């Protein structure tokens, strides 16, 4: 299967601005931000869509939520939106599962 743009960034083949990384995920600043803070939480494992998640991936999916908490602390925001676009009909453009972390809106 051809590598996704996110796998190429994770592997250092093309540049990306990293906000956080650990053994399971990387967090990139979105190249086309839709909010004052727009990050992408991306598992290193290239699962294409949420529909491809299996039982063995559930700890990873839970971990993404812990990472969202870390990002809220790191960027000192009191709230955020965590969004997954699933499938072409759901607005997904990059078929490597990721969660949009959107924050910095007016209170
Ligand atoms: P999707 O529509 O698949 O949920 O969102 C894909 C997101 O990836 C979009 O918000 C888009 O701006 C972002 N994106 C696409 N290509 C790149 C890239 O090369 N680098 C970064 N940092 N973000 C990208």
UniProtKB/TrEMBL annotation:
**For the HIT domain, which residue ranges apply?**
5-107
Question: What are the positions of the active site?
Answer: 98
**Sequence motif Histidine triad motif, residues:** 96-100
Checking Pfam families in the record gives: DcpS_C
Q: Which residues form a coiled coil?
A: none
Q: Which GO terms describe its molecular function?
A: catalytic activity
Q: What is this protein called?
A: Histidine triad (HIT) family protein
